[in-house]
Structure to design on (552 residues):
């Protein structure tokens, strides 16, 4: 059986499931998920009804940023297995009709990458240094960083090197952790390396790439100082008042994606490039998916929209308008490995910039019941929208953010670079539960887990939700089945006017989708109910719930 849409451009309507390898399934019991673990569990994803999977990085890496610090772009880290394990996983996914997208990290490498090690060992002005962004410091002895940029994870974005004779040397730029030096994309050598990396994986048969920090890569000439318009703390230093930071969204990035587009065009099949670009407004983001560039871009403006009918109506309209202006589908996404899971986020009462996470001392902590109810309603709404949707592993189980991780267990560099002031992203990365009442909830058979799992996850385990009416897993499964049956991904959306302000109401194809953002129930129109995110047959449109009905 195959789930993939035959014909061209499957990605326009696909539901793509994000696997975070270290937390998905652990075959060798060392507490860190791996590729054979993924292979073993792929049929569960086919059963769920997704079209494709996207794997976060599994490349050779010191794991300072959970693999987003790559030391070899064309090999698998022994933690996760081998290249043959990867090939087997890819074959198995294809057998099951699942496409496979992998992560590409072109903005920076690991400081352990031989290219960077060679740069450190070479003198200023050398070819090896010109692959990265090395500069002399300011001040009389070069003791001050070359400019005032702050890393996305907090603290200065520059680290000073030590010369081979022990004296202080030049500085290098890292928009993220100091173990993630930025490449200099003005250097054609860098372009050439990434062309071969793309080809290496395309030749192996991958169906596409999610491109990490796809708004980075180029930095403004002269690396001018920049002060963000508001407190930094988001994954992208998002652009308020349309102010473009000199390190994000520079025009040069588009030349790279046009080049990659031509490489993709030379391959058989329908391969996809999806941009992780934290830029606003949506009209800016749409530049990444013009017809000769990438195919998809994560819609983070949608992800960051709060629990409000009015805000959701507006962002859906704005998204469809901005993406259709360039002929691209919108993507929809509510959770990933960088943000507080939406089963918690949608009930937060205090501001929480994306990437900051929440922990026991955070203000405005969410009510778990409210959070899950809203998350189910929001997911049911999202899965009806035209375009492509991304699901993050565990959201189909209704997993909340793990808030009470002990400080000693935290591993996100954000936590360390801010002396614990920002909790970071560990709470959404805890290994997921497969089986109730077994060691590590079936994540492995030894009970080890690189981040501790909560004691009360048995009820959320996949085994406890399979075939259980009303479970979050069955809600997702039903939504995906109906989405396919009614071709919702490829139909037009039409708003219905006759509903109160706090109810969003639209039709897609033959399905009417109603979401009650308010606190009182609403009467449902006559007709056949296809799906409901809460409540049982015969009930009205309950507060904080979504209902799909057959359109009249
Ligand atoms: C992206 C990744 C994030 C990582 C960062 C640096 O935002 O999603 O997890 O920390 O890039 O590579």
């Amino acid at each position: 059986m195959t789930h993939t849409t035959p014909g061209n451009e499957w990605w326009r309507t696909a539901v793509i499931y994000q696997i975070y390898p270290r937390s998905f399934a652990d075959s060798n019991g060392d507490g860190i998920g791996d590729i054979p673990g993924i292979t073993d569990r792929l049929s569960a994803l086919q059963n769920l009804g997704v079209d494709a999977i996207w794997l976060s990085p599994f490349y050779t890496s010191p794991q300072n940023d959970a693999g987003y610090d790559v030391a070899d772009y064309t090999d698998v880290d022994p933690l996760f297995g081998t290249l043959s394990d990867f090939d087997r996983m890819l074959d198995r996914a294809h057998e099951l009709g699942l496409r496979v997208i992998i992560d590409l990290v072109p903005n920076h490498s690991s400081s352990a990458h031989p290219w960077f090690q060679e740069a450190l060992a070479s003198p200023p002005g050398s070819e090896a240094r010109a692959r990265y962004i090395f500069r002399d410091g300011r001040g009389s002895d070069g003791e001050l960083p070359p400019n005032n940029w702050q890393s996305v994870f907090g603290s200065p974005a520059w680290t000073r090197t030590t010369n081979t004779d022990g004296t202080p040397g030049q500085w290098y730029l890292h928009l993220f952790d100091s173990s993630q030096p930025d490449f200099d994309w003005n250097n054609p050598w860098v372009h050439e390396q990434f062309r071969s990396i793309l080809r290496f994986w395309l030749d192996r048969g991958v169906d596409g790439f999610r491109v990490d920090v796809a708004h980075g890569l180029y930095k403004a000439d002269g690396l001018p100082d920049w002060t963000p318009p508001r407190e930094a703390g988001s994954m992208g230093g998002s652009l308020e008042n349309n102010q473009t930071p000199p390190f994000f969204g520079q025009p040069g990035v588009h030349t790279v994606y046009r080049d990659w587009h031509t490489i993709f065009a030379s391959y058989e099949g329908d391969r996809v490039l999806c941009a992780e670009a934290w830029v606003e407004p949506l009209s800016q983001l749409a530049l990444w998916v013009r017809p000769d560039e990438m195919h998809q871009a994560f819609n983070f403006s949608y992800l960051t929209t709060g629990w409000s009918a009015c805000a959701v109506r507006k962002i859906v309209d704005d998204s469809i308008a901005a993406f259709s202006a360039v002929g691209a589908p919108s993507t929809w996404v509510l959770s990933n490995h960088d943000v507080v899971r939406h089963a918690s986020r949608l009930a937060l009462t205090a501001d929480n910039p994306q990437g900051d996470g929440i922990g026991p001392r955070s203000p405005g902590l969410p009510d778990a019941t409210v959070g899950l109810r809203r998350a189910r309603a929001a997911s049911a709404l999202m899965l009806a929208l035209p375009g492509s949707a991304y699901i993050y592993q565990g959201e189909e189980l209704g997993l909340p953010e793990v808030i009470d991780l002990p400080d000693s267990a935290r591993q996100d560099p954000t936590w360390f670079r801010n002396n614990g002031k920002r909790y970071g992203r560990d709470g959404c990365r805890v290994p997921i539960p497969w089986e109730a009442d077994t060691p590590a909830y079936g994540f492995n058979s030894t009970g080890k887990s690189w981040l501790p799992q909560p004691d009360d996850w048995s009820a959320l385990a996949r085994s406890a939700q399979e075939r259980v009416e009303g479970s979050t897993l069955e809600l997702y499964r039903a939504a995906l089945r109906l989405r396919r049956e009614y071709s919702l991904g490829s139909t037009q959306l039409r708003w219905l006017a006759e509903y109160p302000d706090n109810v969003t109401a639209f039709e897609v194809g033959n399905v009417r989708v109603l979401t009650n953002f308010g606190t009182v129930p609403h009467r449902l129109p006559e007709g056949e109910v296809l799906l409901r995110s809460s409540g049982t047959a015969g009930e009205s449109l309950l507060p904080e719930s979504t209902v799909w009905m057959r359109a009249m």
Observations:
- Residues 65, 68, 105, 176, 212-213, 235, 276, 337-338 surround alpha-D-glucopyranose (CB under 6 Å).
- Residues 1-7, 237-241 have pLDDT under 50 and may be disordered.
- The radius of gyration is 23 Å.
